[in-house]
Every structure is written in structure tokens, then in C-alpha cells.
Specification:
Elements (H helix, E strand, L loop, with lengths): L1 H18 L42 E3 L5 E11 L3 E4 L11 E5 L4 E8 L4 E6 L2 E6 L3 E2 L6 H18 L1
Antiparallel strand pairs: 1-2, 2-5, 2-8, 3-4, 5-6, 6-7
Length: 163
Amino acid sequence: MKKSRLLILLAGLSIFASGCGFSTGGEDSTVTVIHATPTPTPAPTPAVTPTPAATPTPAPVVSPTALGVNIVKQDATYYATTDVNLRTDCSTDNTAAPVIQGVPAGTQLTSTGVSEDGQWVEVNYNGTVCYASAQYVSTTAPAGAAAGTADAAAATTDTAAAQ
């Protein structure tokens, strides 16, 4: 009797299992394929390249005149665009900044600085530091500047000889 019960139990389980969706691979079978995504391998972090230090720009040298006008030191060549007075300081006041000498248009002037406001040019004229108003000088040489300077020198010599 035990064997018969066991046999009945096995027959019931087989019927039950076939009704629960257990399949042996017929037409109605569905296969689900699961694709595993691989874990990415981290890329190595590149080494940090140090940024080269910038070459510092030298600070401009500033020098005050006797009247307190700040002159930024810089070398340049200027030309008188018209007859211009060279003064002892950066002022048109004849008491505060008397005229040292007047120079004719076309005269080449060696600049040693420019006022911070750009209104005056410091020049070294025949070994003397003097100041010319920036509105009467230019860094552009006038046409025939060399001839104009030579003609002015000849005219001065001719005038001196006539006196």
C-alpha cells in the first residue's frame, strides 16, 4: 500500500508540474536571454603638467617732476610737428616752467618719458632734461625731416654770420 500511495503521489505531481508551466522545449517555449553589461575599467588619470610661470612684466618706472607731474620713463624718438618750446617743467606758466629753448618743426627729440596723462613729453635736448607739450610732437617723422633740420641749422648759421 505504501508503494501504491507513492505511485499515485508521483502521478499527481507529474500532472501538477505539467500544468504549472513546466516545459520541455516545445513550440510555446520562450527563452529569455540576459546580457550582462561588463563593468568598465577606469581609465588612468593623466599626470598634471605644471603651467610654466609667466615672465612678469616689469613695473613702469615713474618719476615726479618739480611741479609734481609723474613721468613714466620710456625711451622713444619724437619730432616737432611745429615750432615748439622746450620748458623746465610740465606747465605753460612761464614763471613755474620757463622756456629753455625753442626748436623748429621737424627737429628730432630724444624722449626719456611721457607724463601719466600723456600731455607732456620729457626729452633730453643737448644734455638738458626739458619738457615739450605732447600736442606739438609726434613719433612719426615728417616728410623731409632730415632736410628740414639741416635747413634750420643752415638758416641759424646764416643769421649769425649776418649779425
